[in-house]
Design goal:
The structure is a homodimer of 280-residue chains.
Chain A lengths: L10 E4 L16 H10 L4 E5 L7 H10 L3 E6 L12 H14 L3 E4 L12 H20 L3 E4 L16 H11 L4 E6 H4 L5 H7 L4 E6 L23 H10 L6 E3 L12 H15 L1
Parallel strand pairs in A: 1-2, 1-8, 2-3, 3-4, 4-5, 5-6, 6-7, 7-8
Helix pairs in contact in A: 2-3, 3-4, 4-5, 7-8
C-alpha cells in the first residue's frame, strides 16, 4: 500500500468539491483558477465536469499538463438508462470532450430503472447494450469508460448498479477492454463483500474516489463529508483497492452544499491535502 | 409460491402505515380502532410499535386474537449500537412488552456505528454481543429477535447491517435459535445477491415487510411507496423469500408523510388489500 503521509502526488481534485464553481455553489473560480491553485499545492491531477468546459476542453487540458499535472478524468456521460436517459449523440459528445481534454477516463453514472420495469434486469441489459455501443468509439479516442456503482439510496432514478460486483457484472456483459469501474468510498464503504469484489474486479478498476460518509447524513445528494470526518474505513478501503492492482490517482469528490461549498476554495484545497496525507 | 390473488389472510398491517396514528401523522386512531378496521377487512395480523401500547399491551394483544387475527410482531428494540444506543433495561422492557402483547417476533433496528470507530467491524461485534446478551431472556418469553438490514443510506446513525448476508453473519456470531432476520423489500430490493443470501438464510427468516421503492424518492425516511407504485420486483422477491422457506405473514409497512399518512385510514387499508392481491 502506498504511503501518502509525506507525498500527495497521487491526489486529484474533482471540481465538484469546489461546488463546480457554479453560481451559488462555491466561489465561482474559473477552470484556470482551479488549475493554478491545485498546481501551487502540488496536486497530481484534476477531474472536470463536462458543463464547466464549453468548447475550451483542449486548451484546459493543455493548461493542466503545462502546470505539471494530469487530467485524471471527466464527469460524465448522460444517463444511459431510465426515464432521463440521454441520446446517443449526447454520449458521443461526452466521449469527444474527454478526448479533447486528454482525459483517459470518462465516468458513467448509469441512470435509473427503465420505464415500467420492475427490478433491475431490464435496466442492466439496456445499460450493457448502450455501453457496448459506445465503447469502440471511446477506445478509438483513447478513452476508457468507468461504470460507477452508487449507494442504493440512488436506485430508481439515478443508478441501476449499486456495488462493485454489480459493475463487474456489467463489464462482463459488455466484454470490452476499455470498460471498467470507478470505486467511490461514499457509495461502497458499507459493503461487507467489497474486498472480495475488488479482487474479482482486478484489472478493471479505473478510478478511486475519496470523501467520507458522515454519521448523520442530512441530505441524500449534497451532504458528503471531508475525509476523516465520517465513519468510512478509508485506509482499509484503499488497501483493498490497491490489493486489486489499482495504483492511479485518488480523486477527492465532495458534494457539500451546507459545509465545504460555503468555504473559500483556498481553505478547502488546503484541508484536502492535510486530510489526504493523514486520513486516506 | 403462495397465491394471494383471492386470499389476503397472509396480510398483516404494520401500524406505521397509518402514521402510527400519532398527532400530525395519520388520523389518530386508537389501537382498538385499527384492530376493528383490519378485522372487518380480513387482515390476518397486525404489527404494533411499542410506544403505541403503553401499559395496555396484554389487553391489545387479546383484542387482536379475539378479532380472529394474530399479533405478528412488535417494533422494536432501542438501538443496540452507535451514539444513540439504548440501555439493557430498555431492551428488556421491549422484550417484556412483546411477551405481554403475545408477539412472537420483536424487530431489531441495530443502530449505527460505534463512537469513533471506522468501518463496521467494531459495531457488529458490539451488536452481536448485545443480541446474545438478551436472546435467552427473549427465548424464555417466547419471543424471537429479528435483525432487520436497512438500505445503506441508513449507515452511520441507524444501522450497521445492510444486507441479508450481513444479518446472517450476525446470526452466526450470536448462535442462538431465536435470533433471525426481518426482510423488508424497501431495504433489500436492489441487492443482486438477494436470492442466494436468502437461501443461505433458510430457516432464519422471521418476517417479510412490504412496501415499494419509488422511482423518485424525495425523503430518506418518510417517502416509501405503496406496493405497485415503485420499481421493486415484489413478486420476484417474495418468490425468493418463500423459496428460502418463509411462509408467514407479509407485513405492510409504509412510512409516507406526504402521501399515505395524509389519507383516511379506511382508504389506506382498502388500497393495501387490493394491491396485496394484485401486486405482491
Amino acid at each position: 500500500m502506498r504511503d501518502f503521509s509525506n507525498d500527495h502526488s497521487a491526489l486529484a481534485l474533482n471540481t465538484a468539491t469546489l461546488g463546480h464553481n457554479l453560481p451559488g455553489r462555491g466561489a465561482g473560480w474559473s477552470p484556470e483558477q482551479v488549475i493554478d491553485a491545485c498546481a501551487a499545492r502540488g496536486y497530481g491531477g484534476i477531474v472536470f465536469w463536462q458543463r464547466e468546459l464549453g468548447r475550451a476542453a483542449a486548451q484546459i487540458g493543455d493548461r493542466v499538463r503545462a502546470a505539471g499535472m494530469e487530467v485524471t478524468g471527466l464527469c460524465r456521460t448522460p444517463y444511459l438508462t431510465g426515464s432521463e436517459a440521454g441520446t446517443d449523440a449526447a454520449v458521443t459528445e461526452s466521449i469527444d470532450t474527454a478526448a479533447a481534454l486528454g482525459a483517459p477516463v470518462l465516468t458513467i453514472v448509469t441512470g435509473g430503472t427503465e420505464l415500467g420495469s420492475k427490478g433491475l434486469d431490464d435496466s442492466r441489459k439496456r445499460l450493457a447494450e448502450r455501453v457496448a455501443h459506445h465503447a469502440d468509439h471511446a477506445a478509438a479516442c483513447g478513452v476508457s469508460l468507468a461504470l460507477e456503482p452508487l449507494n442504493p439510496m440512488f436506485g430508481g432514478n439515478r443508478t441501476c448498479i449499486f456495488t462493485v460486483r454489480d459493475a463487474l457484472d456489467i463489464c462482463d456483459m459488455v466484454g470490452k477492454d476499455n470498460v471498467g469501474i470507478a470505486v467511490d468510498v461514499y457509495h461502497v464503504w458499507w459493503d461487507t463483500t467489497l474486498a472480495e469484489s475488488l479482487l474479482a474486479a482486478s484489472g478493471h478498476i479505473l478510478g478511486y474516489h475519496l470523501c467520507d460518509w458522515l454519521e448523520n447524513t442530512r441530505d441524500m445528494l449534497l451532504d458528503r463529508g471531508m475525509m476523516g470526518d465520517g465513519v468510512a474505513d478509508l485506509k482499509g478501503i484503499r488497501a483493498a483497492v490497491e490489493a486489486a492492482g489499482y495504483n492511479g490517482k485518488c480523486e477527492v469528490e465532495i458534494f457539500s452544499a451546507v459545509d465545504w461549498w460555503a468555504r473559500s476554495p483556498d481553505e478547502v484545497l488546503d484541508v484536502i491535502v492535510d486530510r489526504f496525507r493523514s486520513c486516506c
